[in-house]
Amino acid sequence: MHFNSVSTLKTALEQKRISSLELTQLFLNRIQKYDRQVNSYITVTAEKAISSAKLADARRAKGDTAPLLGMPIAQKDIFCTDGVRTSCASRMLDNFIAPYDATLVQKTQAAGMVMLGKTNMDEFAMGSSNETSFYGAVQNPFDIERVPGGSSGGSAAAVAAGLAPIATGTDTGGSIRQPAALCNLTGLKPTYGRISRFGMIAFASSLDQGGPMGRTAEDCALLMNVISGFDERDSTSVNEAVPDFTAHLNAPLKGLKIGLPKEFFTDALNPEMAKLIHDAAKVLEKEGAILKEISLAKSALSVPAYYILASAECSSNLSRFDGVRYGHRAENPKDLLELYCASRAEGFGKEVKRRIMMGTYALSTGYYDAYYVKAQQIRRLIFNDFNNAFSEVDVILGPTTPEIAFKKGEKAADPITMYLSDIYTIAANLAGIPALSMPGGFLQNLPIGVQLMAPIFQEAKLLNIAHRYQQNTDWHTRTPKHFAE
Amino acid sequence: MTWETVIGLEVHVQLQTQSKAFSGASTQFGAAPNTQASIIDLGMPGVLPVLNKEAVKMALCFGLAVGAKINKRSIFARKNYFYPDLPKGYQISQFEIPVVGEGSLKIFLDDQTEKTIRIERAHLEEDAGKSLHDVYQGLSGIDLNRAGTPLLEIVSKPDMRSAKEAVAYLKTLHQLVRYLEICDGNLQEGSFRCDANVSVRKMGAEKLGTRAEIKNINSFRYVEKAILHEVERQIDILESGGTVKQETRLYDPDKNETRAMRSKEEANDYRYFPDPDLLPLVIDDALLDAVQKTLPELPEAKRQRFVETFGLSPYDASVISSTRDLSNYFETVVEKLDKAQAKLAANWVMGDLSAALNKENLEFAHSKVSALALSELLTRIIDNTISGKIAKTVFEIMWSEGLAPDTIIEQKGLKQVSDTGLIEKVIDEVIANNPEQVAALKGGKDKLFGFFVGEVMKQTKGKANPGQVNALLKQKLGV
After folding, report:
1. May I ask the CATH architecture of the domain A6-256+393-483?
2. How many domains does chain B have?
3. Residue B175: its H or E element
4. Hey, which end of chain A has fewer CB within 10 Å, N or C?
5. Chain B contact set for A315 (CB, 8 A)
């Protein structure tokens, strides 16, 4: 039951083979049993979950047929949840009980979904290994010596270990796709503006986007139907009609033009991984798709541009954590400056401080033009790169990560190597386009991800391709042995 | 050595919107601390700003009124600095591209000469909260009710050459924003705040001197005093061979001095960058046209019209056009009168009526004597039913008892006596009773004529038509 897809569980709930309460209890029990090893949750909201499950069962008894009614879900601890600690995995917010619900959370609640708890993550979503969390690293369920990826590593590990059927993540530079790839899940970063950012604690506002992490493309489509849509409280959310993302999952792929960017298949990519990616492309070719080599000439610039822009925005976004109104406050500061300095020095971890400093530097007088403005110009070039590519092909296919899940501690001391984990995912954030990672096989018994990218608002196309792929492969059904019971 | 003063002003105008610039919280002044601060104003994690359209309309309204270039696409930027009353650690403002570009404002000096002051820009931004240092022993309190209130920062070019010009500019600007009904103009509550950039240079020099920015000048009087003091300070420095430092100075009205707050070197690096939470502000022609249609007649246009149409003196015209309330009142009064009588109306509005309002601290809009009632009263002066002097009595009763002028004239029997026979009878009595004065007058003491007029008016309780009294007296006394 616990490794079933959401669509399977949905049918079980609809046919009343199981109640939401039973399903919720099942996952809560598993969390209690296994999460000490995985560390995927920061906060488990068992009581709340049980009362929402009862409420969902009551709704169903009255004839409510909302598609995900009674379905358990894990929320990344970056989404504000009314009355529940929302920590962003930081000491800074360890004592912070959010006074309101994020729009995304409101939507899952209105749909009758049952929140199991808040998942672990890299502190303030800054990281690619989930090692920067104040609450400790998260283990990859496929190999507990290894990282689950980040920053949505808790969400990925929770679903992979069967501690939640589906979860939310956020993706600023790959934070949904990279952990999905390392934990054998399907993860979708929607078009920038598709999902409201209201109540999602900001890392880099112009890049952040929430999205689903599930076992299958279909599961992601089901959750996308719940969480998408314009929100008048988010000026950057887009007033664009939301399609039924499940409607065309089975559409044939005949004639679909798939581009493989040559810049993604260089020495930087593990050659065995490259082979698996090409294998995946061939599966789609068999389905009638046409493969074509393309060029994303500026993609090498995306990592440096990203680390300027994301750091610049975060340096400003994180200024509100000053110890004055909420969050961590240093004891007995002698004056205002010390209150600020000590609260922030104690409240933020190393990686967060590093990025605040980089961003502050990049925005300073005398450096602004050389860094921030230049990075924005590169962002525009990358956007143009994609526009050109999409005039030739319908979607782009490539790897999600350069290699399989690495060992804990392996890259922690070398931020540059760590930053290169996002080498293939960052460009989609800079361009604002939707991108998806799906399970594409195993290397050394560890999963790898295949990434698909499409023009803006074409999430349905990505889900369609991934679904067709999953009809022809079984990688996505593999689960870690250790958590089978 | 003669020195020339150069002044540029930055004025923060609080826009009188119902809700805040980026949240739905109320902007009402004076509520209990932190009761008007929403999660957005508190800078809670995860919250996002949504621009208040009314604030944009008000900014456009101002831009159009000063003939400014309106930027069809402007950008909100973050001004980053730490302060406890700045919840997000940055202020949302406009930096590189403000919504209102270059414009100008015409000012009048005391001698009625006019001067045009160029406006460099006006941009939208949010206000900070308030730090309260005197409420708790050893602690500072933070009140975030004001945080997020929309401001329009209006920046002039360094076009003013004296403290008096600066005050004239400020007053004209103050009048304008109240005319446009975009600001309540309350200086005490901080709705209209001014920082002055002051420098001096040798008369005739091209290059501007080093400036000091003076903050915290919240009355017209202080602006003048602060500038005068600062100019003197700078001249003293220069004449004794020193150099003026570029710095921010705080005006202390109690000591009438400015003192250094921070130098250029200590100044914050605000690390401005475009706010990624807000889209560029795009102004389309439809919105601009709609705002244009709501623009009232501006004070300067009104002043000219009052001179040309009603023949008011430039001084009277500028007093009457000083606020919309006053000019509306005046125009209602004169509506039913002959244009030639506008001067009479102006005198009454500026005289008796203003005095009565001032006494009770009332606005024209809340006058106890309505404009129509005053118009009726003036009609009775013009048609000789009562004299101007009796009218003052009638006005007082109108004010205190709220009665119509005709009712008062009727009830109190104040109608002017124009019956020649009756007046003649009184004159005859007065002449008969005062033979000595008659003799003196005839002997050349012309001034005594007034005595006779007075006596006749006294006998008729002021109701005799003064014109007739004069004529008949002259006739009877043979002067």
Report:
1. Alpha-Beta Complex (3.90)
2. 3
3. helix B163-179
4. C
5. 80, 271
